[in-house]
Amino acid sequence: MDHLPDWLTPLPDAETMRGIDRWAIEQRGIDGLELMERAGAAVTRAVEALRPDGAVAVMCGKGNNGGDGLVAARLLREAGRQVSVICVADPHEFSGDARANLERLPGPAPVRLDGCAWSGEQGAEGPDTAAAGWGGPGLVVVDALLGTGFAGEPRGAVVQAIEAAARAGSPVVSVDVPSGVDASSGVIAGAAVRADVTVTFHAGKPGLWINPGKQHAGRTQTVDIGIPRGAPADAAVGLIGAAVIQALPRRGASGTKFTSGQVIVVGGSRGLTGAPAMAARAAMRAGAGYVTVFTPVSLQPILAAAGTPEMMTRGLAEQDGCLAAAAAGEVLAATGGRRAALGLGPGLGRSDGAFAVARELARDCALPMVLDADGLNAHAGRLEQLRSRRAGTVLTPHAGELGRLLQRDSADIEAERLAAVRTAAEQAGAVVVLKGDDSLVADPTGRVAVSPGGSPALATAGTGDVLTGVIAALLAQGLDAFTAACAGVWVHACAGREAARRLGAVEGVIATDVIDALPAARGGAGAAPTEATAGGAGA
């Protein structure tokens, strides 16, 4: 697997994070109790920022995640807050650093979920039963049940605690990862906490940025707890950051329309002329110097009238308003020897002829290519056929399209997005962009870039065609497929935010507004912080 480029912030998975912790403690001599103290202090600050006063219920498991929660409980009690500690396991089962912090806890002893003391007496009421029963105004819940090492489906008392927190309707601060979320993948197999804030330590985790886990994480704060620099972490997943802009090609004084990048869009069918027009216009706004749309001959006048004066058009053989199979040869003859990139699929339609064109061009065209929309549908169950391509290839499916490509239900794709996009990239031997608020960009080696998202303006028709044009333009300007896809996803999201800013609201943004905002996005407008980053103790 290739190393992550500098513009990706590593997101270590659970196994990598365990190795980092072990290295810090065993090789660098960092006291595990001190790391836990700093983690608990960060959770305390998050609780106080969320609600400076009121009761707190800290739900603790028996592992190190519970130990972090016990530190927060102690610090909050020392600050004068009413804090109930609810343990889902007998405190006698605690060990190591978690046990040490249990023994340091002042005030009332931990109670069970029902508010009773862990004394073995079924009817004995423990202290603070109102808070333990999730009552009282101004309550904050601290979720310290399951840590980054958890995978699978929560069971027993942990499920009951998750359900009790949901019923309380109070804001939740999760420790490191919301309980029930797989930190390495974002997969949720059963009950899971929905946090308002997740305080995660040392580095973000993939499951906090990949859906469905992302939807449960709330606002993520990554906290430095004192792990030294130089930890042996070779993460396979990274978060796309603003520095990717530095990878974008820039026009020089001696450039021409041809050296600025040529893009050829193949698509369009009766009733679907807007898609190739938007892809072409997006390619121009993303920096391409020369763009041509190849479309059914009867639709050429429509495209010419609907597009901008700068957009070239060419009519191809058609049948019943869609491209005929013979059109593939026309495209290959016209593109042979060109230095360009191909955007294949916008508005293509699903006729037999259109699918034949998509398959032949994907197989035989020597240009770098973006495959989207019905170009993807033409390859349903045929991903392996793309492995023979030698030029850079980017696929841009949403979950439904990826489901068709992999012959799986779209709900299964959404449930395991990271695994699905990696499978598709490996099968196709190509870069695959699984679109969404957490757009995932995977290459065949298993390397994955995650978009921080935060651009709801893109939830409107046509923005997928815009992304096709942007990535095609970047391929035409000489970027490799992985970098072009990551930079395209970033610029696309920034343009959505910039379009919303210009119009004053997310609602009402349409795809052409996003296209108009692309130059500003390339220049850095529309960027947003990817996450809140907090310092360690004393920072």
Question: Could you characterize the architecture of this molecule?
Answer:
The chain is α/β, with parallel strands linked by helices. Helices cover 38% and strands 15% of the residues. The protein has 19 helices and 20 strands. Strands 1-8-19-18-17-16-15-14-9-10-11 form an eleven-stranded mixed β-sheet, with helices on both faces. α9 runs parallel beside α19 and α17 crosses α18. The chain is elongated. The two termini are 36 Å apart. Residues 120-131 and 532-539 have low confidence and may be disordered.
Descriptive tags:
539 residues, Rossmann fold, UDP-N-acetylmuramoyl-L-alanine:D-glutamate ligase, 2 domains, eleven-stranded mixed β-sheet, seven-stranded parallel β-sheet, 19 helices
- Find the CATH superfamily of the largest domain: Ribokinase
What characteristic shape results from the CA principal axes?
A: elongated
The tally of helices reads: 19
Specify the CATH class of the largest domain.
Answer: Alpha Beta
Give the proportion of residues in helices: 25-40%
Mean pLDDT: 92
The helix/strand class is: alpha/beta
Strands in their spatial order, largest beta sheet: 1-8-19-18-17-16-15-14-9-10-11
Radius of gyration: 27 Å
CATH architecture of the largest domain: 3-Layer(aba) Sandwich
